[in-house]
Specification:
The complex is a heterodimer of chains A (453) and B (420). Chain A is mainly α. Chain A contains 18 helices and two strands. Chain A starts with 9 loop residues before the first helix and ends in a 6-residue tail after the last helix. Chain B has two domains: 141 residues, Four Helix Bundle (Hemerythrin (Met), subunit A); 220 residues, MetI-like (MetI-like fold), CATH 1.10.3720. The relative contact order of chain B is 0.09. The chains are: A mainly alpha (453), B mainly alpha (420).
Chain lengths: 453, 420
């Protein structure tokens, strides 16, 4: 028998394998049983049996319903036996979609187990054929604390993510291709697949929806850029002042600013929101001080509100950047400053030629992450203005300071237009993914650069 | 001045400081009040306020601004003649006070002028050139004097910013202590101080704040333990071990992370309902723990910086991977653990959207965030605003103390993530 010194891959396991290897594509774990891993093999077989029992009792029905999303609408139907019209329980499209997604996820999990059982069987065969030791079940269990520790430590996170993150996400993504809006609410009504219609209305039509989408998207970008860079530079300058020579009790100054970070943001935002109201304390005071003759519409007029949210976000965001930058500033080699000062550079030149390039180099990924975070900065907008001021130019519910995320939230919470919300979610994903790709390319080029020069 | 040198002083800027203070002095003689009041200069305004019958108490801002500017000029001239560190320091302190009162005039001018009857309806934008010139001159001379005295000018900026940053926080505190109920009051400082708001908060039958607080504490503590363990485990595996499927796993997590989180909340709610877990705080803990692995990046970045050689040495000595994790990696990661715990703890107190959806109208399982928000609904805000502020103080104080105490770790955690 000629020996192979390489493990076979998924395809060659089948083509080159013996009868056990081939049959283990149908009966999971057969190869394991053949080569001495009886318990493991039986476990695989048991899991397979469970899956197929699920599939034939329930799964096929669920997956079939998924293609139609329900056929019988709830309503009055004539009952011939009694001879009267009676209320009939219709299909619930939402439940059908959700259970269908669960069936899909279960199937994906089974496929993963199937693939794993094949590679595990091949491993057993390989070790057996080459005269290596084949682990028995207890040794396999013990290996969970050592070379297979990733199974042990990732089991809980993976199960958690599958149930509570992955499944709902698939459900919502699919929803973007249905017409589950406020006129198609189960259980009273059915909704159906509509392919890409939602994307078309949102992006391309001359409908009010797309007339809302584009301005909201524009404001999201403006907000993201202003919010990110104002906090970035503000925090950097603040950190530089606090860390500069001759400032005593640095800890005291840092603490003053850090206090705003310690207060949960929804509280400080809500409080500042009431302070900025028409009769809020700011308006009371500035009139008392004689700064203006009448109340300033801080949050009730579009352009004022937009400036206000950026300024309040500055108030909240600067301390975070300040703390982060403080750590990095200390890493800048002191000799750079020393020699610059000897050469007669003033503080601005030092900032422009040394501090800023260094910071920019180190923090680019952070800035991009922050930019994406700000595009999705739900709390800063929602708790402060609630997206207001409202306007008739926009689709119902959307206001002038609404970001895509807050609009998404309102669509689900207030108007129940789940399909639109899901569509916006996918568009947000596309935007975030684009920015992330850019970051990856940049940081890839950074790794080749051998550090800051 | 050119040939003089004094140790501890930077006399380069001395003349500039002196010129600025002279300009400040001249501005006292330029028009201060608006056209209506006849463009009086500051000195004569001060004189007429002094002789007015109903001059408010804060008029002393005006007097002191005038007096201190003159004093500062005199001290400045004196320090020109007898230049020494002491006298320049003295000059600086005088100028700090003068600048302070000039700044306070920005806020107090209207009250002083209106109440003393000098002007009827003063608006800052109508103030004369003397006012603005004096204000600017005060700051400019302060900057130059500080430069002469070799004191960091950053103090001025820090003080101004510190006041701005503290203003809303002071407002929350004062509202929490305010005896007069209500949402809109026309003044900053309460007329009567009381601790009744705090008492009411915990003894109000309509608002079970104590229960909310306890709920949140349970969620926060369980979350700290579970989430931190999960994050540490995930980060350890992804950072210190190599296995097939590691890269795809990380990529899938990244892709999931790019969808807005609460896009899937409605579906999540339905799943929890199907599992019979809706409206309980247990669901909040489970969901929080289930999603915790998504935030592994920062911890992984930290683990990446621990030298591999330590692990290799331990393996040679016969340690298993689990032992490396519990005996070596975790003891080395104090700052990142504190960072994680702090972040989770803070998150539990401020998380609003999902608990709101989850609990619906079942008040007894609300967390503090949902509860406090319920209190600020427009129908209730007027009767609960002071209690809301008291509640805000109650939850903010422990967190702020924790934060100040553990600041160092937070900085280390954050800057560690940036390096990675």
């Amino acid at each position: 028998m000629d020996r192979e010194y390489k493990r076979r891959n998924f395809i060659t396991t089948f083509t080159k394998g013996n009868i056990f290897s081939k049959l283990s594509y149908v009966f999971c774990g057969l190869a394991n049983i053949r080569y001495g891993q009886v318990v493991k093999g039986l476990l695989f077989l048991l899991l397979e049996a469970c899956y197929f029992i699920f599939l034939f009792t329930k799964g096929i029905g669920l997956l079939h319903d998924l293609t139609t999303l329900g056929e019988h609408e709830q309503g009055m139907a004539f009952n011939e036996a009694i001879g009267i019209y009676e209320m009939q329980q219709g299909d619930n499209s939402m439940i059908i979609l959700l259970t269908g997604v669960v069936a899909i996820v279960v199937t994906i999990c089974f496929l993963a187990i199937w693939l794993f059982s094949i590679s595990s069987g091949e491993n057993a065969r390989f070790n057996h054929d080459n005269g290596h030791h084949v682990n028995n079940f207890f040794e396999d269990v013990r290996s969970l604390t050592n070379e297979n520790i990733h199974f042990l430590l990732l089991a809980i996170p993976v199960v958690g993510l599958l149930i509570f993150t992955f499944t709902p996400l698939i459900y919502m993504i699919l929803m973007a291709f249905t017409n589950y809006d406020n006129e198609h609410q189960p259980p009273g009504h059915l909704f159906d697949w509509v392919q890409l219609d939602n994307f078309k209305t949102l992006l391309l039509s001359s409908d009010k929806l797309s007339q809302t989408f584009w301005p909201v998207l524009g404001w999201t970008f403006i907000w993201g850029i202003f919010a990110t860079f104002s906090c970035y530079f503000g925090g950097m300058i603040l950190a530089m002042i606090i860390n500069s020579k001759g400032i005593k009790i640095k800890k005291f100054w840092r603490t003053i600013f850090v206090v705003t970070m310690g207060i949960p943001s929804f509280i400080s935002l809500k409080v500042v929101g009431t302070m900025l109201g028409e009769k809020g304390i700011f308006n009371v005071l500035i009139q008392k001080w004689g700064w203006t003759a009448s109340a300033v519409p801080f949050l009730t007029q579009a352009s004022f509100a937009r400036v206000s949210v950026i300024l309040v976000n500055f108030w909240i965001g600067v301390p975070v950047t300040m703390l982060m930058v403080s750590g990095i500033l200390m890493n800048i080699p002191g000799e750079l400053y020393e020699s610059a000062r000897i050469d007669g550079a003033n503080p601005f030149v030092i900032f422009r030629k040394i501090t800023f390039p260094y910071m920019w180099f180190v923090t680019t990924p952070y800035i991009i992450a922050n930019l994406i975070g700000n595009f999705n900065n739900f709390s800063a907008i929602y708790f402060l203005t609630g997206g207001g001021p409202m306007t008739l130019d926009y689709y119902k519910g959307a206001g002038k300071t609404d970001l895509l995320v807050t609009w998404l939230y309102k669509l689900t919470a207030d108007t129940n237009d789940y399909n639109l919300a899901a569509t916006i979610g996918i568009l947000i994903f596309i935007i975030s993914a684009t920015f992330t790709l850019i970051t990856f390319q940049r940081s890839g080029s950074m790794k080749n650069e051998e550090g800051f020069q | 001045m050119r040939n003089k040198t004094v140790i501890g002083l930077n006399l380069e800027h001395f003349l500039k400081a002196l010129i600025a203070i002279v300009i400040g002095f001249i501005s006292l003689l330029l028009p201060f009040t608006s056209k209506e009041a006849g463009r009086k200069n500051m000195v004569s305004t001060a004189a007429s306020v002094l002789s007015a019958e109903h001059a408010p108490v804060i008029s002393f801002f005006l007097y002191l601004a005038v007096v201190l500017t003159v004093v500062s000029l005199l001290v400045g001239i004196a320090s020109y003649i007898w230049t020494s560190v002491k006298i320049v320091r003295c000059w600086m302190y005088v100028q700090i006070c003068a600048t302070f009162f000039w700044t306070m005039l920005l806020f107090a001018a209207k009250v002083i002028l209106d109440e003393s009857g000098v002007e009827s309806n003063f608006l800052l934008k109508n103030a004369g050139v003397g006012f603005w010139l004096g204000l600017i001159a005060a700051y400019v001379s302060l900057v130059f004097i500080m430069k002469v005295a070799e004191v960091n000018v950053g103090y001025i900026i820090l003080t101004i910013l510190g006041v701005i940053w503290m203003f809303p926080i002071l407002w929350i505190l004062l509202t929490a202590l305010r005896a007069e109920q209500g949402y809109y009051v026309g003044y900053f400082f309460p007329k009567h101080l009381t601790l009744k708001n705090f008492y009411d908060l915990f003894h109000n039958t309509a608002v079970p704040f104590g229960k909310w607080w306890l709920n949140t504490m349970i969620v926060a503590v369980c979350g700290c333990v579970l989430n931190t363990l999960i994050v540490l485990g995930t980060a350890f595996v992804l950072s210190r071990t190599r296995f097939s499927g590691r890269k795809p796993f990380m990529n899938i997590l990244m892709i999931i992370g790019m969808f807005p989180g609460f896009m899937s909340m409605v579906a999540l709610y339905n799943i929890l309902k199907g599992l019979g877990m809706n409206q309980s705080i247990g669901a909040l803990i489970v969901v929080g723990a289930a999603g915790a692995a998504m935030g592994y990046h920062i911890t992984k970045g930290f683990f990446d910086t621990i030298p591999k050689a330590i692990d290799e040495a331990a393996i040679i000595d016969g340690a298993s991977r689990l032992q490396i994790f519990t005996r070596i990696t975790i003891p080395l990661s104090k700052s990142i653990i504190v960072y994680q715990v702090l972040g989770t703890f803070l998150g539990a107190w401020s998380d609003y959207i999902f608990p709101r959806l989850l609990f619906g109208d079942r008040q007894s399982s609300y967390t503090v965030a949902v509860g406090l928000f319920w209190m600020t609904d427009f129908r209730r805000i007027d009767s609960y605003y002071t209690q809301f502020a008291a509640g805000a103080v109650v939850i903010a104080v422990p967190i702020v103390i924790l934060f100040i105490w553990l600041q160092r770790f937070y900085v280390e955690g954050l800057s560690g993530s940036v390096k990675g």
